[in-house]
Amino acid sequence: MSMNRTIMISDIHGCLVDLDQLLNTISFDSRVDQLFLLGDFVDRGPNSKETVERVMQLVQQHHAIALRGNHDQRLVDLIRNSNKDVRRKFLEHGGLQTIQSYLHSEVLELNDDVLDSATDYIGKNFMDHIRFLENLPLYYEDDSHIYVHAGLNPNYPNWREQPDYDFMYIKDEFIYSRMRFDKPVVFGHTRTSDIHGSPDVWFQEDRIGIDGGCAYGLQLNGLIYENGTYKTVKVGSR
Questions:
Q1: What global pTM score does this model have?
Q2: What is the pLDDT of residues 122-172, one digit of tens each?
């Protein structure tokens, strides 16, 4: 059976209610739809643990393709190699909400002792989540699009050879580059409100930004590609 629609969503950041609402709004049916989830499933929003569980279910039971975002990598790094720099970046970028979600606790402040306890708990009880996140691919390509969390580095003639870091972190160097790609690049990571002043999907020649800034009180975008045309759907934040 061929897929009728390609559905793209990025930067869920623990906004599980919005993800489920969006999938319900578009009547997602994995028998005829191909779903792409472009990374950043944790941090900032209220339900990181539950979002990872939902993404795992979508991948394992509904052949969704999920990519690894920088926040997903940061959680992996926290559990695998919790040095001071990793901890600092985790806390600076919404990690408190992730710890609250995994511990089912209203932790108000993360000092070293609390973080030690939290990482130990996650490591003992949710290593399936960590293994899932760290094994997610950094990009995917089909006949119509290139899918990536952050973007492609224009300094690499063969973008597949760029550093892993760029797939998860690159911003302006990709977005505003004059480099042209063989097919449209669909990406998240950079909020579209920072690109064109609106949380709506950003279309620009051969690149499409879809991060609506859900965890910042804006919206979760869904981009639907069907029969050569695009349709956008959005749901409000929590």
A1: 0.95
A2: 999 999 999 999 999 999 999 999 999 999 999 999 999 999 999 999 999
Q: Write down the CATH number for the domain with range 5-236.
A: 3.60.21.10
Residue 4 · residue 34 · CB < 8 Å: no
Q: What are phi and psi of 228, to 5 degrees?
A: 80, 5
| Confidence at 237, pLDDT banded by 50, 70, 90 | low
DSSP state of 213: B
Domain segments of the chain as ranges: 5-236
Q: Are 174 and 139 in contact (CB under 8 A)?
A: no
∠ Cα 146 54 74 (to 5°): 65
* Main-chain phi, psi angles of 235, to 5 degrees: -125, 150
End-to-end Cα distance, the chain:
36
**Which of 137, 123, 129, 124 is closest to 80 using CA atoms?**
123
Phi, psi of 122 (to 5 degrees): -65, -40
Q: Which two tokens stand for residue 175?
A: 């977005």
Cβ-based burial of 167 (10 A; exposed 0-12, middle 13-18, buried ≥19): buried
